[in-house]
Design goal:
The complex is a heterodimer of chains A (201) and B (463). Chain A has 201 residues and is an alpha+beta fold. Chain A has one domain: Immunoglobulin-like. Helix content of chain A is 18%, strand content 37%. Chain A is globular and about 60 Å long. By secondary structure, chain B is an alpha/beta fold. In chain B, helix 10 crosses helix 11. In chain B, the strands form four sheets. In chain B, strands 5, 6, 7, 8, 9, 10, 11 and 12 form an eight-stranded mixed sheet that branches. In chain B, strands 4-13-14-3-17 form a five-stranded parallel sheet, sandwiched between helices. A two-stranded antiparallel sheet of chain B has the order 1-2. Chain B contains 14 helices and 17 strands. In chain B, strand 1 and strand 2 form a beta hairpin. The chains are: A alpha+beta (201), B alpha/beta (463).
Chain lengths: 201, 463
């Protein structure tokens, strides 16, 4: 597991902050190359709820958070952005479970036989629709970080309540790495929410 | 002067325009041929052959981009086309070369030091061509719907449906986006790209599937394939940003402090040094390319001695742009001193300048310029009226004559005529005084005005 340990090393060498708030263990990493990574885990189940990245743009301005797992809950302001996707569009969110990577695409009302989900040679999963309404190409960054190949046989889909659920079973390499990371995280000293260093008079 | 008819065909202008008509909006270039010879009447420029040829040579130097920190002075009487030549150069350089235009008095402000304002102007004139990854949306417009509020006021809302061969997405539009979509005249069937970061819209062409919609099609209509795959793509684009823009991006105070400092304000010299270092690094790595632009300072005699000595120093840097200055002063006092100097510019700076001079226009040329202005302002004028106006232009000033075009047109329209006639010109000539008649009037009626009992001071302050 040389590849997966390089990711663990990267996190170990970064500057870390940990906090427990709202039943979530919130971690913030500043990697050595300047990128910022924020993760949120459910305290009870140790499930990953949010993972987001922030890096500086080429010209040096501060960028926005980019969500890898979970979704941004704050409402966007159309006046500031000028253009944004209507909320009636399909919304693509990754939401992992303990044993599998999972993506949920809400606002997709078409029946299940409309969808065609495949893995291609470039390590991407592609969702196609026969009625040409939705198309999405995405990779699994976790797998790329560990140099693992995607396999079509691990993919499965389900459809209910206007939501398409795509599931990919985590291989053992990933499961072991996550276990290792969790034990590392539990060693971190976490500040509780509401901790105030000084006593306010 | 048989050239104009041929030139008119060349210059196809867009049918509609949103910009207002400014004093120099008829200038579209320097009007030079390939051998840098000035055509008599071309691209809105008339006469001033020598000055235009000289400007053309400088233009070649700028396009080469090798030489930094040269300066050019355009000197001439008021209304002889100094600003027009500078505008022509800007137009000829195209939109990819930064061209900053400021007036000499603009650097004096309470919020910013003189040298800070000049440094910012300098850095606005240096472009950096750099590859940057941006998110773009590329697709065919299926439907565009803009709702105006029933009351007539308030924000417009809109929806835009885009598709590729594989998918379809609906976007909500903000006010700004609606404006730029209407400006670009985007309609169903167009293939467009939208830069997500800047909101810039580019029309790529019309979709092949719409090729048979109409028989009548502009000659320039280009048909393109509907894009494939996802609507949103990450793409590496090469674009030009100015050093000043990079400064601002890196200096903006974070968080609530941004509320108290304005958009730019003064930029710390450490930030600038850091960016210079970074740009040099990019250049060595081959990531970026420097595009030296042009800084044009109009009314340069308004600068004071400190600014001039700052310019001396700033021109020596290898990151300096080409500096173009214009002045209409002769030998006059340098601002901030009691010394007299040609053009109000210290001799040591003058020594570093290439000087172009403009000459007063001849009658034929004035007529030509007035004709161009009439065209620009959509005014029809009879030949006799044009002759009279040309005479007025010769005897008073070109600017006054140009002002009369608009006013005479209004008078003509009031009497429901389509063409401006001699009488209209006479009417406005009597209504509005030119500078010399006004002076004459003042001389005669000096006694009637207020404060005339005070003895006039020895000489007027000119700077």
């Amino acid at each position: 597991m040389a590849a997966s340990s390089s990711w663990v090393e990267l996190l170990k060498n970064s500057q870390k902050t940990c906090m427990i708030q709202d039943g979530r263990r919130k971690l913030h990493f500043t990697l050595q190359d300047g990128r910022e990574l924020a993760e949120e885990y459910n305290v009870k189940t140790n499930e990953l709820v949010v993972r987001k990245w922030k890096k500086k743009s080429t010209l040096g301005g501060a960028g926005n958070w980019e969500y890898e797992v979970g979704e941004q809950l704050a409402t966007k302001n159309i006046q500031a952005e000028g253009l944004m996707e209507s909320n009636t569009n399909p919304i693509f969110v990754r939401k992992d479970t303990a044993l599998s990577f999972q993506w949920r695409i809400r606002n997709l009302p078409y029946p299940i036989d409309t969808y065609n989900v495949t893995c291609d040679d470039n390590q991407n999963i592609i969702i196609r629709t026969t009625n040409k309404k939705y198309y999405k190409k995405f990779g699994i960054p976790d797998m790329e970080r560990c140099n693992l190949k995607l396999e079509q046989s691990q993919l499965s889909i389900a459809h209910a309540n206007n939501t398409l659920i795509v599931t990919y079973k985590k291989p053992t390499g990933i499961l072991e790495m996550e276990k290792e990371l969790q034990t590392e995280f539990s060693k971190l000293k976490a500040s509780k929410d509401g901790d105030v260093d000084c006593t306010p008079s | 002067m048989a050239v104009p008819s041929a030139d008119k065909v060349q210059e196809i202008r867009e049918v509609t325009r949103i910009e207002r008509i400014g004093a120099h909006s008829h200038i579209r270039g320097l009007g030079l041929d390939d051998a840098l010879e000035a055509r008599n009447v071309s691209q809105g420029m008339v006469g001033q052959m020598d000055a235009r040829r000289a400007a053309g040579v400088i233009l070649e130097m700028i396009k080469d981009g090798k030489i930094a920190g040269r300066a050019l002075l355009i000197a001439g009487h008021p209304g002889t086309g100094k600003t027009a030549i500078a505008m022509g150069m800007a137009q000829a350089l195209g939109s990819d070369t930064p061209f900053t235009s400021i007036a000499g008095s603009e650097i004096f402000s309470l919020e910013m030091g003189k040298t800070e304002a000049l440094t910012q102007a300098f850095r606005k004139s240096i472009g950096v061509r750099i590859k940057e990854e941006t998110e773009i949306i590329e697709g065919e417009v299926v439907e565009i719907q803009i709702d105006r509020p029933a009351t007539g006021t308030g924000a417009k809302v809109g929806k835009l449906t885009l598709k590729t061969t594989e998918m379809e997405t609906i976007y909500d539009l903000g006010q700004k986006m609606i404006e730029s979509l209407t400006k670009e005249k985007v309609q169903a069937g167009d293939i467009i790209t939208i830069d997500k970061a800047t909101g810039k819209i580019t029309k790529l062409g019309r979709s092949f599937t719409r090729a048979r919609d109409y028989d009548a099609m502009g000659a320039q209509t280009k048909f393109v394939q509907c894009p494939e795959g996802e609507l949103q793509k990450r793409k590496e684009v090469v674009h030009t940003v100015t050093l000043h823009e990079i400064d601002v991006i890196n200096s903006r105070t974070q968080g609530f402090l941004a509320l108290f400092s304005g958009d730019t304000g003064e930029i710390k010299s450490e930030v600038r040094e850091q960016i210079n270092g970074k740009v040099a690094e990019w250049r060595e790595e081959g990531k970026a390319e420097i595009v030296p632009g042009v800084l044009f300072i109009d009314e340069v005699h308004m600068l004071d001695i400190e600014s001039f000595s700052f310019l001396n120093r700033a021109l020596e840097s290898d990151m300096a742009p080409i500096l173009i200055m214009a002045t209409n002063r002769g030998i006059t006092r340098i601002r901030g001193t009691n010394y007299q100097s040609p053009h109000g510019i210290p001799i040591d700076l003058l020594d570093r300048l290439l000087i172009i001079s403009t000459t007063p226009y001849e009658e034929k040329e004035i007529r030509q310029i007035l004709k161009i202005r009439c065209e620009e302002e959509d005014v029809e004028m009879s030949d006799d009226a044009m002759t009279v106006l040309t005479r007025i232009g010769m005897e008073t000033s070109l600017r006054y004559a140009i002002q009369l075009i608009t006013t005479a047109n209004l008078v003509a329209r009031k009497r429901k005529a389509t063409e401006v006639d001699v009488d209209d010109i006479k009417r406005v000539y009597s209504l509005f005084l030119d500078e010399s008649r006004s002076t004459q009037f003042l001389k005669e009626y000096q006694q009637e005005f207020m404060f005339n009992e005070l003895a006039p001071s020895e000489s007027m302050e000119t700077s």
